Amino acid sequence: MNKKKILITGGAGYIGSHTCVVLMQAGFEIVVLDNFCNSSEIALTRVKKIVGRDFKHYVLDVRDTDSLRNVFAVEKPFAVIHFAGLKSVNESIDQALNYYDNNIAGTLSLLKVMKESQVYKLIFSSSATVYQQSTIMPIAENSLLSACQPYGQSKLMIEEIIRDIVKVDANWQVAILRYFNPVGNHESGLIGEAPCGKPNNLLPLISQVASGELANLSIFGNDYPTLDGTGVRDYVHVMDLAKGHVAALQAIESWHEALPLTVNLGTGRGYSVLEMIHAFEAASAKVIPYKMVGRRAGDLAVCLADPSLAATLLDWQAKESIEKICADTWLWQSMNPQGYTEI
Ligand code: NAD
Ligand code: UDP
């Protein structure tokens, strides 16, 4: 039994809660830190229910450096997985200062306390939004980087900060994981994606249409140079993604390069909006009414990961099918139509 304690910032969130499950099932001890600005404490209760084990959590903003110091002094974590951050591309355009403050100041606060506490193992949640839009598909990790909105910029800036500190201090063992499109949920239907407010992402919107919460789905553009004209994305099951974090934790223990270990977490296989609708209709036995509307500003026709480096460096590959993704999402939606309302 592996008793290494992992501190998970943002552990009550969508990807964090699934990673809590996978870490505990892999034998790690966990401690969660979250200010619940986009999540619910109930998610943590559900994680405990799935795993059948208890763990501690701190209701804390990662920018509160003094309190964070105390958490490190008490918990003495072996490593940190840093999910805490704001993640909506659209919201970040209107709330740029808030996004830079939360994401960058939050990460600086964490890095400072980690260094003081001599905890040098870190997994950081980055995103495919750090890649330059005109890049060739599928995207390899050495593709050009640039972001055109504050959310993506904040991830890119944090990556640069991490690269700078790792370059000059060989104690750091860091993995930067660039996620493509996380979807699905734990197959129990007990935890899932439950953002505060209206979702922006395709699958939560499709599932709300299937359950009747929304009347129809607006498809943003059917004139892209793709097979059916709708946008194509690389949808990766969140349980696969969560397992990628365990693989990364194992990989950084032997990682002493001058650059952080930086890998894409995606499948390399794309699905169009129409293909996603049809897969969801098959999983839910519901009809998903949709209407074609204009393109969404800033959208790419296709966004696909080259996942080969993750296979080589982490021995990780996404395994779950689109059918499983849709079936799990439908179960979560059916069991929790309003998100986390009850324990
Ligand atoms: P989420 O919003 O569900 O989870 C983030 C968690 O962090 C929430 O529980 C929130 O309450 C907490 N949090 C935010 N700011 C905080 C702060 N200052 N102090 C303490 N807690 C704070 O998001 P998610 O989908 O689970 O994403 C996790 C990470 O992965 C984020 O950093 C996000 O940018 C990144 N990411 C997500 C996606 C995606 O599509 N979900 C894609 C690429 C990258
Ligand atoms: N999409 C859509 N209607 C919606 C939301 C999304 O047609 O209401 C499309 C979007 O244009 C993209 C795909 O679905 O082609 C995935 O969008 P999402 O926002 O989930 O991910 P991202 O575009 O950020 O990768």
Q: Biggest sheet: strands side by side, in what order?
A: 3-2-1-4-5-6-11
**Helicity level, as a percent range?**
25-40%
Largest sheet composition? 7 strands, parallel
Low-pLDDT residue spans: none
CATH class of one domain, named Alpha Beta
**Shape estimate:** globular
The named CATH superfamily of one domain = NAD(P)-binding Rossmann-like Domain
CATH architecture grouping of one domain: 3-Layer(aba) Sandwich
Walk me through the structure.
It is a single chain. This protein is an alpha/beta fold and 343 residues long. It has 11 helices and 14 strands. It has helices at 14-25, 41-51, 65-75, 89-94, 96-116, 150-168, 202-210, 238-252, 273-284, 308-314, 322-335, and strands at 5-9, 29-34, 56-59, 79-82, 121-127, 173-179, 181-183, 217-220, 232-233, 235-237, 261-265, 271-272, 290-293, 302-303. The protein has a 7-stranded parallel β-sheet with strand order 3-2-1-4-5-6-11, with helices on both faces. The protein has a 3-stranded mixed β-sheet with strand order 12-9-14. Strands 7-10 form a two-stranded parallel ribbon. Helix 1 (14-25) packs parallel to helix 2, helix 7 (202-210) runs parallel beside helix 9 (273-284) and helix 7 (202-210) crosses helix 11. The two termini are 29 Å apart. The mean pLDDT is 96. Residues 9-10, 12-16, 34-39, 61-63, 83-87, 102, 106, 125, 127, 179, 182 line the site of nicotinamide-adenine-dinucleotide.
